[in-house]
Write a structure and sequence with these properties.
The protein has 274 residues and is mostly beta strands. 0% of the residues lie in helices and 50% in strands.
Length: 274
């Protein structure tokens, strides 16, 4: 299936993939389990609410889809499995965000999942929320720069946000969020404005992959970012330009699932660091 803007939640030697944008510019409710060990794709029950541009996390041990867009921005938290005592055979709405939010990201630090940025249908959000169960949300702080579609990764106990979009403009800011204090600051700037990209932690460095350098321009560039000295250096190129892809990180490397080239793709890229 050609898909972009889907949720990918790691699960053992694979992932649960849910929702996304499919051909016809439609949100999908489809979900499946991807096994990297055998290359198998196993269908799962459909989401309760079809969404794209949602965020994913594990809450109470269960894969969860948080917020997202469809006909309108959504506040739903949907979970598969034992979260909330529900059966493992279907997705259930287990909670609601304080306000609808799409184009957001999540980051897990310890037992807590942080819900960061996004768009509520009227404005770009700077809000940072914390949750452990998808039902109860605590306001942790605010971003220095409200943003949607950033690349996000956890490194050194902090959450790093790269670029993103606000008011139709792509941004070059690198923001560092302290999950203990909720404080966020702009600590560096990207080589160029970038949104809709992906970030992966590789050793002690961050690999920034693909994205959009303009609303109608998708890039194949990759960059290394060193959190210690806040510098960027080139890291080569993807085999093709790619944005809004799903990301799975394993001990063997990273995988980019689907995305926009700018056409939707079903291809999978494996990233191997030499």
């Amino acid at each position: 299936m050609r898909v972009a803007r889907e949720v990918v939640v790691g699960a053992g030697r694979g992932a649960v993939v849910a929702g996304g944008l499919v051909e016809g510019d439609q949100s999908t409710a489809r979900a499946y389990r991807l096994s990297l060990s055998h290359g198998d794709v196993t269908p799962l029950p459909d989401l309760a609410v079809p969404v794209h541009d949602a965020a994913g996390a594990r809450l109470g041990g269960a894969p969860a889809v948080i917020g997202g867009g469809g006909a309108t921005e959504q506040a739903t938290v949907q979970a598969l499995g034992r979260l909330g005592g529900g059966p493992a055979s279907r997705w259930r709405i287990v909670g609601q965000l304080p306000t609808p939010r799409a184009d957001l990201v999540t980051a897990t630090v310890g037992r807590q999942s942080l819900v960061i940025g996004g768009y509520d249908g009227r404005a770009t959000s700077a809000s940072v929320l914390g949750t452990t169960d998808g039902r109860h949300f605590e306001a942790l702080g605010r971003l220095a720069v409200g943003v949607r579609y950033p690349a996000a990764v956890v490194a050194g106990g902090a959450v790093w946000l790269f670029g993103g979009e606000r008011d139709g403009q792509l941004l070059d800011v690198v923001q560092r969020l302290d999950p203990l204090t909720g404080r966020t600051g702009v600590v560096a700037h990207l080589p160029r404005p970038l949104g809709h990209g992906s970030a992966l932690m590789v050793g002690d460095r961050i690999l920034l992959v693909g994205g959009r350098t303009a609303p109608d321009a998708v890039t194949a560039e990759m960059w290394w970012f060193d959190p210690a000295d806040l510098t960027f250096r080139r890291a080569g190129r993807l085999p093709y330009a790619l944005a809004d892809t799903g990301v799975l990180v394993t001990p063997e490397g990273g995988y980019l699932l689907g995305g926009e080239t700018p056409a939707l793709t079903r291809r999978v890229i494996r990233l191997v660091v030499h």
